[in-house]
Each structure stands twice: as structure tokens, then as C-alpha cells.
Sequence to fold (206 residues):
Amino acid sequence: MKLVTSILLVLFGAIIGCAQSGVTRESGLEVISFSWSKERIGWERDPFGGPLENFDEMRSRTRNEKRLDDAKRGGGSAGADRVRREAKADAANLAKQREKSPPRYVFVYKVKVKNNETTPVTAVDWDYVFFERGTQKEVGRQEFTSEEQIGPGKSKELTVIIRTPPTHTISVTSLNKNEHEGLTEKISVVRVKYADGTVWTNPENF
Fold:
């Protein structure tokens, strides 16, 4: 009898151990929405959309303003006019230099998910997958891991910003407003880790 009891205890302990290690479980993670966008970097904008000065332009303007004030205090209108002409030339040269620098872009990938389980989520592996419209041939896949705490019944937007475009056909140095038109997209949730140590893995990815 003692032997049977010991065997049952060992088996029961093994079952508990498997549950705690959490090889797999139901996902319970719902994809609510997703999107991607292309954002220009290497320049700044004010809150109203107008371009701000870069550091060199600001330094040049500050220096020329001081020179103009000094010229005005010296009482010479000719000196002030000369400073104004030089300041205008400086501004034009710096503007040309900025125009010669190719624009750069980053890509912002977002997915909003909801945790329908009773256990908090601690990490999500997700792929943003792109297909050629019409043929549905896969033409791009971005693979991400987001370590985020998502409580039971809660939703959260996961955001990743990288320099890699969705597909090789999308430029990283120019803006084309029609880049979305030739693509269809989906989110593939690959793996979900929960706070109790359990893990769900998508059987389609393994």
C-alpha cells in the first residue's frame, strides 16, 4: 500500500511539474488591429508642421544676430547691411547642404492585442507578414519580440521602430504614398509567454 501511495505521489508531482513548466497552453491573445507607417528622420518639425533649424543653422543664426547687434551699436549702417548679406548667404548655403543629404526613413510596426486569458502576458513573439496583392505570395516578414505586461482582459499596442522596410521593393530613402496599395498584410502570433511560466506556441510556425 505504501508503495502504491508513493508511486501516486510521484506521478502527481510530475503532473504538477509539467503544468508549472508550461510547455504549452491556449493562446487567448486576440489581435485587434495592426498597421505600419514610414517616418522620416534626420530632421525635426515643430508642432505646427514647419521645419525647425538644425544645430548648424541655429549656431549660424545666433552668431550672425550677435554680429548684427554689434554693428548696430557701432553706429555703422554699412556694417549692418554687410552682416545681413553675409547672414543671408550663410543661411542659403546651409539650406543647400541639408537638401543634398538624402532623407532617411524608419518604419513603425504596430499591433494591438487583447489578453483574453486570466493570467497576465509577459512577452509576445509576433510576425508582421506581407503578401503580394493578387497572388498572395509572401514578399516580406518582420519578426519581433515584445516584452510587455498585459493583464487579464486588457489590451495593449505593441510598437517596434526599425530601419528595415516591409519588403525589398519599398525604398528607405524616398517617400511613395502608394506603397501600401500592392500589399496585403497579416499578423502571425508565434509565441505567447505568461506570468505563471506557461507558454503558448503557434503550431503553424513550428
User: Anything to note?
Assistant: Residues 55-100 form one domain. The first strand starts at residue 29 and ends at 41.
